[in-house]
Amino acid sequence: MCVLIVTHNSHEYVDRCLCSVLRECRSYNSRIIVVDNDSSDDTRHIIEKRHPEVTLIASKQNLGFARANNLGLAKAPASKWILLLNPDTEMLEGSLATLMNEGKKRTNAGVLGPMLLNEDGTIQKSCRNYPTILGEALRIVFLDRLPPLSRYGLRHWHHKAFQKVDWLSGACMLIPRKVADETGLFDPTFFMYSEDMDFCYRVMKMGLDVLYVPSAKVVHIGGGSSRHYQLRMLCELFKSKYHFMNKYYGARIMRFYRLLTVSGLVTRMTIWAVFGFFNQKARQKASECWNVILWHMRGGQI
To answer: From 3.40.228.10, 3.90.550.10, 3.40.50.300, 3.40.50.150, which CATH number describes the 2-220 domain?
Structure first.
């Protein structure tokens, strides 16, 4: 099997991630490839010094998550399985074996993902349904928080049962190599975010299953490479969602979806601003909403 990890200023997490991967891969004939997206910190030095057995591809520019993974796949040796992993993850004992066993048992598996855990051990909601106009409308008026309407975002699903889902977080994905090769892995027009959703959508269109395997557990810090650029990455998230909607539903639906999203941001900003008179965190939330609204008003330019 081949493990692909994309890093960008990930020095705080990458050593722990690689140590866990090397432990989990002991029973497999494996190759670990790290594609570094032009890090300006000690990420490359840490990998070269502490993990010389890892193949490091040092890009001279930030290719984005999708293109960097595709580069890693192009350099990967022949294998039956591809494991995609974020650098801010830690594979817990037996997680890889559990994913592999499920993948081998289920011949229609196109991609498998584990239960993601926060650092404190709580469950991180890592499965979602595809975005829809109805789902966004419910979110604007906060009805997506109420069962059974919450099913549109899987908000209240406990994430404890094995299940076929729409899409999984790209923080950890096990993919049959033939599926990765046939799809070309990620669409390079997605710079960061939603490339995992797009990939799962194409896998589904192939008639294959996207499977959530909670018996395999992986700690995911979340935003490890992007937390230093929080506003920029938040705007990238919206940008990628609009790109997904435009790609599969057309420009007219995408524009309506964007209008609903902005309406939701205005609603949330107003509510957070009211609570902001009493709470600093609410003031920060209102400011965040306002900055994203401004980004939309400027035409979505980052």
So the answer is: 3.90.550.10
